[in-house]
């Protein structure tokens, strides 16, 4: 099987490529070729026995989508996107990459299928940013999209396109709305959601981290490892049970910041917790207040998607996957 | 005030232009200029005291949207669309007219606003086709879009764009999801929904009509006069109370075919009812089974949108507006 990952240079793309390289397969189906695409050529994952190709390409540029799809990959994982903050700051760029890029990909698949039968699996990563406040405490699978960012609007449009192209038989698509990824590896960043990861990741290695909101703030999380599991499952499972509704709210863990901190205390002790510095930031508090807190994710759970159920588990996953098994402290 | 109607040649566009011409205003605000656009130049409405201009233009063609918006109309009513059946039969045309045409209009408005302050009222007619079965018996204002036609997907995408462009301050938009229009004037047509009108309109003038479904079939209706009232209200009301949620399910009348027929009996007698010929059509029955039956339309009602509450009323509106006040029979 030939798998293409568009947006393979990002955190999730790299982890997915590494997982496929390690498994040599997608849930038991052998992967012979891995095509990794990003605006800067991604690195090939270590230890892949098949053929890996890495290419720099901008999906939104003329002809690029057609050239990529000409290789007829059986599975296309479309992760490429401008993030929320940038899509809000640069309206044209957000629509060009997040909407036009996605539509050009789908159109290229349709054009390829018009030449000779072709119906690839397409996994599109959407986001809980398709929802906008006010919403119920727990969002069910039939709650409407009312995004409050251009990024959220672009993702919701991508979902509608994917569902229509799939219903029309041009592809076999699935759109998955990922929880916030926690603990995000790497450096602290300035994204409004950054602190959810920072307050765990930094103290685990003896560094200070800033908490800008109250401990009562509740949010929706899954580990990078769970997210890769979602992608693998979406790329390989039989999608017929989804019928014409190819968009899923994925499972996650609904937890308060206080619960995150208690888990940190249990896993890494009081010394780690003491490294969290409380610096209230009203701007971040206001942004975060507009974010979803909890989901039923009933359909996705029924279909076998699974995330962590405690923050202790999320922290242990980080220790295993990023810190070599034990916190250095 | 300058009002532009795009798609002014259709049934609703003509009726809206006639209403504005008769009133010389939009809910009390004087209209000095009326610009009517369609792919074939529409006719100017009779009796308009202001300046009417009628123009043939295809919104999806390069440069057309910019040229239209250059006149800076304060109100733009965007009715232009390829209907459901055609959008399903011609994938490219549906996306070109219904999605690209709408997006080009919104982009032209944004570009015009970048030259000098401009924030027109934009009324976008969406449809209950944004919903796809299965759904609850009564659809509330927060039920999700899962369209089962490309037309429905294109309308749902138009709504998302309108909401985002409005949130970003580029326009003052409202998207209204119209009920099925009944009694639709004119000739019987082959649309799957045609019979809802045919079984009343034809018998009222002594003609036979075919009923292809069971009398138990329930659907969601409003008269053409109510629809024009929706457009006038959407074009003129203060939209601030809608906040960032600029899409409305509009009120209508939920009625079974049996209830339609009973109303016909009360208004036009047994002789009219006897002109309805039952010719079951499994294809139409299957299509109609996937359509919504009822809505709460709570937000729209709170905002002053109103439709008929009995089918007797819908029939009387047709008699007054299309048959000169009394059924010829």
From TrEMBL, chains A, B:
UniProt entry keywords in alphabetical sequence: Carbohydrate metabolism, NADP
Leader sequence segment: none
A GO molecular-function descriptor: oxidoreductase activity
Family matches, as SUPFAM superfamilies: NAD(P)-binding Rossmann-fold domains
Origin: domain of life: Bacteria
Protein's name in the database: NAD-dependent epimerase/dehydratase family protein
């Amino acid at each position: 099987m030939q798998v293409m990952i568009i947006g393979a240079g990002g955190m999730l793309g790299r982890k997915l490529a590494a997982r496929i390289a390690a498994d040599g397969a997608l849930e038991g189906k052998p992967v012979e070729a891995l095509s990794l695409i990003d605006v800067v050529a991604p690195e090939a994952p270590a230890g892949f026995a098949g053929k890996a190709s890495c290419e720099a390409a901008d999906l939104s540029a003329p002809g690029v989508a057609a050239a990529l799809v000409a290789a007829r990959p059986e599975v296309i994982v479309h992760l490429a996107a401008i993030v929320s903050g940038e899509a809000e700051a640069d309206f044209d760029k957000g629509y060009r990459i997040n909407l036009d890029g996605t539509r050009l990909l789908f159109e290229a698949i349709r054009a390829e299928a018009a030449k000779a039968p072709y119906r690839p699996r397409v996994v599109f990563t959407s986001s809980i940013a398709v929802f906008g406040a006010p919403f119920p405490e727990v969002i069910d699978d039939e709650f409407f999209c009312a995004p409050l960012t251009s990024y959220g609007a672009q993702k919701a449009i991508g979902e509608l396109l994917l569902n229509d192209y799939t219903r029309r038989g041009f592809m076999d698509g699935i759109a998955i709305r990922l929880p916030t990824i926690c603990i995000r590896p790497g450096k602290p960043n300035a994204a409004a959601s950054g602190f959810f990861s920072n307050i765990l990741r930094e103290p685990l290695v003896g560094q200070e981290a800033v908490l800008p909101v109250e401990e009562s703030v509740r949010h929706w999380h899954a580990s990078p490892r769970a997210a890769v599991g979602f992608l693998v499952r979406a790329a390989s499972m039989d999608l017929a049970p989804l019928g014409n509704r190819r968009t899923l709210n994925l499972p996650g863990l609904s937890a308060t910041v206080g619960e995150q901190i208690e888990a940190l205390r249990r896993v890494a002790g009081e010394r780690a917790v003491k490294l969290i510095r409380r610096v209230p930031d009203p701007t971040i508090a206001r942004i975060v207040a507009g974010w979803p807190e909890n989901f039923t994710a009933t359909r996705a759970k029924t279909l076998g998607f699974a995330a962590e159920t405690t923050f202790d588990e999320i922290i242990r996953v980080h220790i295993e996957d990023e810190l070599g098994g034990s916190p250095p402290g």
